[in-house]
Structure formats: C-alpha cells, structure tokens
Amino acid sequence: MRLRHLNIGLALGIASVILQTTVFDRYLDPFGVAPDFVLLVVVAASFQLSEDAAMLLGFSAGLLTDLLGNTLLGVWALVLTVAGYATVRIRQRVEGNAALTLLSVFGLTVGGELLYAILGTLFGQQVFSDVNAFKKVLLAAVYNLVLAAAILPLTARLMKRDPAVGVWP
What we know:
- By secondary structure, the protein is an all-alpha fold.
- It has helices spanning 3-24, 37-46, 51-68, 75-94, 98-122, 133-158.
- Helix 2 (37-46) packs across helix 5 (98-122) and helix 3 (51-68) packs antiparallel against helix 4 (75-94).
- The longest helix is centred in the last third of the chain and has 26 residues, at 133-158.
- The N and C termini lie close together (5 Å).
C-alpha cells in the first residue's frame, strides 16, 4: 500500500466530516434530509484503495463523525468500515462501467444508512421510531447518487492509480 494514497484518503475523509457537520447537516438539507457526504467520500476513495486502507479510512472518518456528531460512539465507525470493505469487494465487478458504479454508490448508501438505523435502534437511539425513516434513507441515497457524479472523478484524479499496476498493492 502506498502511504501517499492513504494520506490523500484520510485528508478527504477529514474534509468530508468537516463539510458534513458544518455545511450539509445545518444548511443543505432539502426535504429535511442531508446527503451522507462522509459515506460518499469513503466509498469514492475506497474505489481507489486496498482493503486495509479502505477499512482504515472508513473507521477513521466514522470515528471522527461519531466524535463530532450526536450519535453513539462507534456506530458510524462500524458502518463506514463496512462500507469501505464492501466497496473494495465489489470494485472489480463495477470498474469501467459508469452506470454500475453509480448504482453501486446508491446501493452502498442505502446499505450504510440501513445498517446505521439498525445499529442505532439496537443501541437505543430508536431510529426506526421515526415515521419518515425509509424516506430519509432513500433521499440520502439519491443525493449521494447526484453528488457521486462529481465526487467519483475528483477522487479518482486525486488518487491516480497506475494502470500498469492495477489496484493498489
């Protein structure tokens, strides 16, 4: 694994947490739902990283989200670690196909949001007691799908892979 790519991923993770907690959660929430920008950045960076680096990025960004947010400590860390790992596992199947890549971002967002809701409910946050829980999950996934059109190419450019090597060692 190249340290430079992990550092770029971690910097993107920190920037996404800052944007999520300051801008998206407070000002950009049409229909009462904000995009899950941290999840999107973790997925986008995980398309370029190895398994270990993707899980480290997911855990770090999730832990920082938990520390700055009003959720139980460790829930987002677990969700984003799973999202990073799942992204690496499906990367070879969707690589080179833009439609499948965007569809995978949508699916990973829905999966991540549902996992967060299930874990939050198990640990007493009662996420599913909200009548609009599934609406919020689907809207966040749609927002991430729209944002992914800009974030995926930007992340790929920042974390250039060597085509001769393939995925990161």
